[in-house]
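CO-FOLDING WORKSHEET

Operator: S.A.
Ligand of interest: adenosine-5'-triphosphate
Run index: 327
Mode: holo prediction, single chain
Checklist:
[x] sequence pasted
[x] SMILES validated
[ ] output reviewed
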Amino acid sequence: MSDERLAATDLTVGYRRRAVLSGIDVTLRAGELACLIGANGIGKSTLMRTLARAQSPLTGRVELRGRPITDLSPRELAAELAIVLTDRVAAGQLLGYDLVALGRAPYTGWFGRLDDTDRRTIEWALDTTGSGHLAGRPVTELSDGERQRLMIARALVQQPSVLLLDEPTAFLDLAARLELVKLLLSLTHEHGLAVLMSTHDVEHLLRHADSVWLITPERELITGAPEELGLGGHLRRMLGDTAAFDPRTGTFAWDDGHAATARVTAPNECPADLLAWTVRAVERAGYRVGEQDPAVTVEVRASGGWRVGPRRLDSVQALVACLRDGG
Ligand SMILES: Nc1ncnc2c1ncn2[C@@H]1O[C@H](COP(=O)(O)OP(=O)(O)OP(=O)(O)O)[C@@H](O)[C@H]1O
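OUTPUT RECEIVED:
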């Protein structure tokens, strides 16, 4: 199909002595944000690097816009595909601006002289990634999160049609993570880029990704919409016996099938966030919140605080302690 940007066929990735993942058939399309998830050491980075031609497949092939990726010159490849890895860059004496400017290499001449278009693109990428203030700073002096923003800016100035990011949120603070996801959604949904990112920030990404590439503990790659993987039970099984995905809350949690049920009631005028935080506190105390056969009822009081049976509780700590005592 014409919107196929990156396609792998019967791909085996790994190292000289060992295949890490095999039998991979997968496609990344224009306008798609795909999220690659799986346990530590399962093969996410190895797959990413192979898709980007940073390492060779053991068998099978990768096509970029219908062309075998091995047929592209380095310049053609860099103008079509950018990858942001977690490896530390050897930045020497480079300033932030210079590091980002390196991404323009596929478009500049032999001497890397920047023209107005290059400079505008660099300014845009610095601005978009919130790293304008880092342009004049030596890269070696930057924090991991600051450097990560510049690496993303460097990938953006390549103006690729395919963007691969290996754990791009690992060093980012919460605000920067949210900004990055917002940026990736705009790049995919509004500008038609194809983006694949690996992440351990699963709960967050499941909310936004168009598709999930999940590597199971058996090293099988399963792809689908987040909801399809949820309905197929794949998310539930992802962490083995450690925890299970709760689609209601969109989080992974201990799968405590024996938790008692607590009913939570509140007056009509109860603010939504007070009710929501009460539910969280009740769950933190070890209960499942529901209506069926409740072992305890927690009442949010119109006059403030909570009531559990005859007990009035004025603080969240007191509420949780009371519930942990069995109400
Ligand atoms: N250069 C290498 N030579 C041999 N084996 C390697 C090499 N690099 C990684 N491996 C092995 O390949 C397997 C997959 O590693 P990879 O880095 O792809 O996992 P990952 O899913 O990205 O893990 P993480 O979530 O911890 O980053 C691991 O068992 C790792 O030890």
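REVIEW:
The mean pLDDT is 90.
The chain has two domains: 4-240, 261-325.
[x] output reviewed
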